[in-house]
Amino acid sequence: MSKNNGLVRVLRVVMPAVAVVCIVVLPPWDIVWAWLKPLPGSVQEQVEDAPGHGFDGIIVYVDQVGQKPALYAAGWKNRENRIPADPHALFKIASIGKLYVATAAVKLVADQRLSLDNTLAEHFPKLVGRVENADTITLKMMLQHRSGIPNLTDHPDFPWGDPPANSEAALKYALDQPADFEPGQSYAYSNTNYLLISELLDRTLGYSHQQFIKEEILTPLGLTHTFGSLNEVDLDEVMSGYAVGWEHDVKENNHGSMLATAEDVGIFLRALNDGSLLNEQEQSIYSSVYVYEHTGLVPGYQSIARYHEDIDAVVVQFVSTNGGNAWTISEVIYSRIIKILRDQYSRADYRSAS
Asked: What is the model's pTM?
């Protein structure tokens, strides 16, 4: 046996053992610690614990059946000026905004101003040849993330630190790229889908889809603290955002995100889930094209908005730090909050049955 062959055999035995040791000895302890800490008795205690896991600020909104909606906050609204976290602060909700865009699209489909079966080529002839399969990609596929159009923010050159100034500039990062798959044959989350849907809504309406969202969704629900873009708000009312590896507050970076308070997002999500936002026809269409919960992520901001049917609770969580293991830890904290609520719900249910 040659020395090289002997070395290969040794490595085959040793390297798996080394890998196991590394997993045991060098795990992501920040995540492990977030999981293993004793569960506190209240949401407030869990929220107050969050900054200890590297988050600059956190806001949580809870709307649970039989209880008055509650807001919680900890950490900083602005780290540099030591301004405490404000539960009423505006926050960049990022992809949670897709729920509003999908709702607007569904309303126009129900009103027969749009069709789920119309193709991208029909609405955007100039994209034929620049978006593969444009002639077979439908609005329904785009709403469902089943179009195969590449995600523009996955492009290696996408400028997160200096966001594109408009939709046209952003779209360039998805053009002239091979499709991820044949339309309708698979699923891949793509921000490009909803950028194109937003542009389609603007063209169909003849004015900004954000104005339509305000008229058809926000105003009927009494939501006065939800906005279409950073340009519409007072920056002093926006929670600062921080990203690992970036030294300063990034709240002035405009990635086109909607902004809202946690309470406004929670009220919207409750109405979307309980059927009070959409009529029967609209509800039927919506349930066939999109989801009823969402997360969001842009530099400095990460968010979770979900409805939990088993405890009839809407829980919205905003965290103003991302990067590294921040997303996973945020999900851990969120799951612990849900466990606290479930425990409280079970105890209350037991007391009522006794």
From this structure: 0.91
